[in-house]
Amino acid sequence: MIRALALVALMSATSCVTVQSVPPLATARMVSDFETYQIHRVGLMPPAGLALTLQQAEHLGAAFMAEFSAATNFEIVRLTARDLEAIPRMEAHLRGRYSPATVSAISRRYRLDALLVPTVTDLQTYPPQRLGVQVDLLSSETGQSLWESSVHLDAAQELVRRSIEVWADTHLGDVSDNTWELTLISPSRFARFAAYQMASLI
Fold it and tell me: What is the 3-state secondary structure (H, E, C) of 95-116?
């Protein structure tokens, strides 16, 4: 009888526990006919925008690869600068648009249905970290953006810190009391959090 009462009490306590959701910080929009596109194999372009060091580009590329692979059913193919040496750069952040011919050339070479193009708009890798990123999913057929998302994170802001704390608690393994605080000083984890915010909206 005592064991039964203890079990009931444990079940009642468990039912009161609610799983916190990560406060959304990114925004996104997609074309109205997005569902009509057959997207299976997606090329992940190297991060563009600001002049990034090799280490910064690696952190960002790895973050997008991990989070978009986890959030979608796409087969993500990570492309490097070497893979794109013979193809003109798109540089949409300078030209204001993507070149359909370039998108088509990359897609044909690697048999892609779409390209995922991250562009860094703000970056500070020392505390308090900042990271601004825009990501476009481009159709291989038309070169047009089918989906886009952007986020700007400033670790000095309370909402960002609170969102990171919930994310670390619910999505990172081997969590300790200060895991979320490590994200505030780790560029690779900060990039992973930014990628998670955007990937969760697709």
Answer: HCCCCHHHHHHHHHHHCCCEEE
